[in-house]
Amino acid sequence: xxxxxxxxxLFREYRATGDISIRNKLVxxxxxVAEILAKKFAGRGVEYDDLLQxxxxxxxxxxxxxxxxMGAQFTTYITPTVTGxxxxxxxxxxxxxxxxxxxxxxxxxxxxxxxxxxxxxxxKPTVRQLSEKLGASEELVMEALEYxxxxxxxxxxxxxxxxxxxxxxxxDSKDNFEVFEDSESLRAEIAKLDPxxxxxxxxxxxxxxxxxxxGKILGVSxxxxxxxxxxxxxxxxxxxx
Length: 241
Known about the structure:
Layout lengths: L3 H14 L2 H22 L6 H18 L8 H23 L4 H21 L5 H8 L3 H9 L9 E4 L2 E4 L17 H9 L3 H12 L4 H8 L3 H19 L1
Antiparallel strand pairs: 1-2
C-alpha cells in the first residue's frame, strides 16, 4: 500500500497525463474503501458482490475526478461519495423490485381485510377465508401473503426525538474515523467538542458500543446517536480541512 505522499504524487501525475496505468494503481491502492463500504451495506436485500461492483465503479470515478489541490485527503473525499452512490443504488433497486401487479393489488386487499377481520373476531383470518372473501385462489393468496414491500433507505420512521429516515438508524462502522489521517490533530479537535459529543465518540469509537447501546447509556434514542455521530464526523472533517 502506498503512503499519502506517494499517492499525492500519483494523483498529480494522473491529472497531468491521464495515464490509465496510474489510475489503476490508485484504484488498487484504495479498493479497500469500496470493500469496507460494500460490507457495511450487505445483508439488506442486495448481494455483497453487487454492492462491491457499485462501490468499485464509484471509486474509479472518484479517482478520475479527484483533485489533490482541493485540500482534502482522498479517503476523506471518496468515503461520502461512495456511500451516497450506494444509497442511491438501494433507492433505485427498491423501486425496481416489484411483484406482479395482481399480487401487489391482492396484498393490499389482504392487509385491509385481515385488519377488519381481526377487529371483528380478535384473530387473523385463514388463507381459505381470505380466498373465499376476496375471490382469489388459495395459491394466489399465499403468494400475496409472502410479499413484503421493499423498504427504501428514504423511508420515514418516527423515534422519541422526532421523525427521520431509515438511513438515520443504519449504524456506521467504526471505520468512520479512518478518513482522518492525522491522529494528533484529531485528538485536539475532539477535545473541543461539547461533553455529550465527546461521550458519543468515546462510546462508539473507543469502547465499540453499538448506536443502540450508546443510546441506552446516554438515555437517548438510537436515532439521536446516529444523527449526533454524523454531525460530529462532519464537524471534525470541516475543522481538520
